[in-house]
Design brief:
The protein is an alpha+beta fold. Helices cover 48% and strands 12% of the residues. It has three domains: 48 residues; 62 residues; 172 residues, no CATH class. Strand 4 and strand 5 form a beta hairpin.
Amino acid sequence: MQPIKRLCEICKFKEAVNIHHKDLNHRNNKKENIQYLCVLCHSKIHNISPNISELKRLVLLLNRLQKTRISLVNNINGFNHIEINPPDYLNYFVTFLIKKEKEVEKEIKLLLDSSAYKIWTWLKKIRGINYKLAAKLIVYLDINKAKRISSFWSYCGLKPEDIRIKGKKLNCNKELKSICYQIAKSFIINKSQYKKFYDIEKVRQSIKKDNPPKNKLHIHLRAIRVMLKEFLKDLFIEWKKLSCLNTIEPQKGRYPHLTSSIVFNNGREELSEIPQGKKGICEKVFIFLPNPKLAVD
């Protein structure tokens, strides 16, 4: 018989895993001073960026459940390979893990739909982005730390120099790099609006004479990198707009040979123009109008 789970006393939905002291005195453990809360509600009381922490917990839990299930399935296949019937409890564990995965996925979807994440309203319009991929992007990318579009590109491992070299530490997040290539595969399969950048770059690379690609796989990977950069550029702009800016006015064609690098400094925008290299992407130059309600020293 399984123990009965205690639900959060505020939301009445999630499992209560934290204890909150109403008078903020941790030594006062009287019954009337104790409140059983979930991570999200407890964080909101203490004003500690609750949404990201709760979403990150769910995303990491889902990843662990998926890896454990895949490992068990591989072990079951190993039993079949040597012509031995696998134990029944292994199949039971796989079924149990699939059930738990669906429960966690449901919680992630409910959390995204709770209007706590404004960027989700934009991401769900992109063909090829489901709520699981969106949740992973929100968890691993920090819009408050990224000052330039290139910060996203670098952290996602989309720079040509971001390759594994023995004894040298990578500047990118390996998990996020894997997520980005999952997104690229989804874009191609679902014929996303960003697939046009992939198709155009494939044609351009196939006729390129300066630093030509080595083979078809090289062409494919270069085209994927361009497509992901375009997506991350739009994500960065939209995210910054929702977080601290009011209006964005694009100016097309002013500097077609330059790449715009937008630096955000305490709510003020600084637009620097960096010459585009041979492998760069020609971006539009944007003027960011700061939110008039945002107080800036």
